[in-house]
Amino acid sequence: MSNFLLFSSALEATISEPGNTLETAFDLGSLSYDYGPPLGLPILRSYADYVGADDSADYFKFVLTSESGIYLNLNAPSNTTVRILDSEGSEIASETLPIYNSYGSLQQNLEAGTYYLHWLTSNETASYYNFNLLAGVPDGSGDYETPEDLGSLTATPVSRNDYVFYYYGSGNSFSDSDVYQFTLSETSTVNFSLTDDAQSSTYLSVSSISGSVSLVNLNNNLSETNASAQQTLAAGTYLLYLSGNGAFDIASSQSRPTAYTLSLSAQPATVLEPGDTLETAFDLGSLSYDYGPPLGLPIIESYADYVGADDSADYFKFVLTSGGGVYLNYNSPSNTTVRLLDGEGNEIASETSQYSSYGNLQQNLEAGTYYLHWLTSNETASYYNFNLLTGVPDDIGDYDSPEDLGTLTATPISRSDYVFYYYGGGSSFSDSDVYQFTLSETSAVSFSLTDDAQ
C-alpha cells in the first residue's frame, strides 16, 4: 500500500464572460484564413459555457478579412439553439438541437466582415454547451443531401475546382467532402481525371444513385498530383464522392486542405453489353498466365454493370490456355450472386452477397473456356463491379484450413508453392500460405526458405 496527498485549487478566470448583447459579445478575434500558397492550416477557436437559468443569452464575435468557410461543431442539451449572425445581428443560419441529440453542426461560406454566434435556450435550467469553430477553405460543391448536378455527360469535358480537407482538433473532427451527380444517356465509357496539390491524398469513388456499391475507385496519393481512370458504365444516374486532405504539417500534426480539379467526359461505349446467355457472353479474351522464367505479372480484367430490373443475367467469357489461379474480387448489393462456370455452363463455384457488399472467389483451373454468370433476386437494378485476376495457382492451405505437415522428425519435410501481393483496378489480391505442424516433444526446429531472385 502507498500513501499520497492530492492538492487542488481553483484560479479566478482571467477571460471575460460572453455578454448577452451584440455590444458585449466575447471577442474570438480574427479567424482569417491564409490561402497561401501553400494553403494554410485551418484556424480553430473553442469555448464552453452555459445559457438558461441566470444567463439569458451568450454572444461571440469574430472577424474575417477574406472569404472563408466556417465550420461549427457543437455539443449541448436539447432545445439549445446557436445562430450565426451578420454584423447587424441578422440571422444567416441556425441550429436547434432536438430531443435525444446533443451534437450538431453548421457550415457557411462567409465573405469578409464581422459575424456573431448567438446561443440561447428554451430550457429553464442552465444548458451547458461547448463548441469548436473552425475557419478554413470554403465549401463550394454539393454534399450527400444535395449533390451538385453535372448533368448528362458528353465528349466535352465537364470540370470543377474546389477543396477537400480533414482536420482534427479539440476533440472534434472537421471535414469537407464533395458529392457530384451525373447522368449517362446510354452505355458509355467515362473518363475521370483528378488533379490535386503536391503531397496531397484525394480519393474518388462512383456509385449508382440507387445503390451504395462502388463502381469506380481512383486514388491520387502523396507521390502524385494527377490521376485518371476509365470505366464503362450503363445508362443511368451516378454519384461521385471526393474526399481527402493536403500536405501533412509536422509542427501541428495536422494536414492542410488541398485544392483539386475534377474533369469528366463520356463517349458511347464501343464494347458490347454482357449478354444473358452463354452464347452472347461478353468476351474478356485470353487471360493465360506466363510462368516464365521469370514469373510474369498477373493479368487483370475489370467491369461494372448491373443485373435485375430489365436485365435478368450477365455472362462473361474468358479463356485459359494453361492452368492457373483465378482470383475474383467483387462489390455488389445483397442478394446478388456470381457463379463461375465451366465451358458447358456447369457451376464450379459461386458466391452470394448477403450483408456485406464485398466478396471474393478463388479457384485453380485447368486450360479451357470459363464463364462468370451474374444474377440477382432483387427486383430493382443491382449494380456490381468486379476485378478478375489470373496468376499463379494457390495449392497450399489458408487460415481457415492450414495444410497439416504432421509431426516433425529428423527427416526434412518440403513444400513448394507461390505467394504474391498485387494491387490493381481498385482492388488488392494476395495469396499467403498457412501450414500446421506438431512437435511430440520439446525440439530444436530447423527452418529453411528459398525464393526467386529480388
Explain what the structure shows.
The chain is mainly beta. Helices cover 0% and strands 53% of the residues. The protein contains no helices and 34 strands. It has strands at 26-30, 43-51, 58-64, 68-75, 80-85, 91-96, 103-110, 113-121, 127-136, 148-152, 158-169, 172-176, 178-184, 188-196, 201-208, 214-220, 226-233, 236-245, 248-249, 254-255, 258-268, 282-286, 299-307, 314-320, 324-331, 336-341, 347-352, 358-365, 368-376, 382-391, 403-407, 420-424, 427-431, 435-438. Strands 1-3-8-5-6 form a 5-stranded mixed β-sheet, with no helix packed on it. Strands 10-13-18-15-16 form a 5-stranded mixed β-sheet, with no helix packed on it. Strands 12-11-21-14-17 form a 5-stranded antiparallel β-sheet, with no helix packed on it. The chain is elongated. It starts with 25 loop residues before the first strand and ends in a 16-residue tail after the last strand.
Rounded to the nearest angstrom, the radius of gyration is 29 Å
The chain-level mean pLDDT equals 90
Strand arrangement in the largest pleated sheet: 1-3-8-5-6
- Ends apart, CA distance between termini: 59 Å
Low-confidence stretches: 1-14
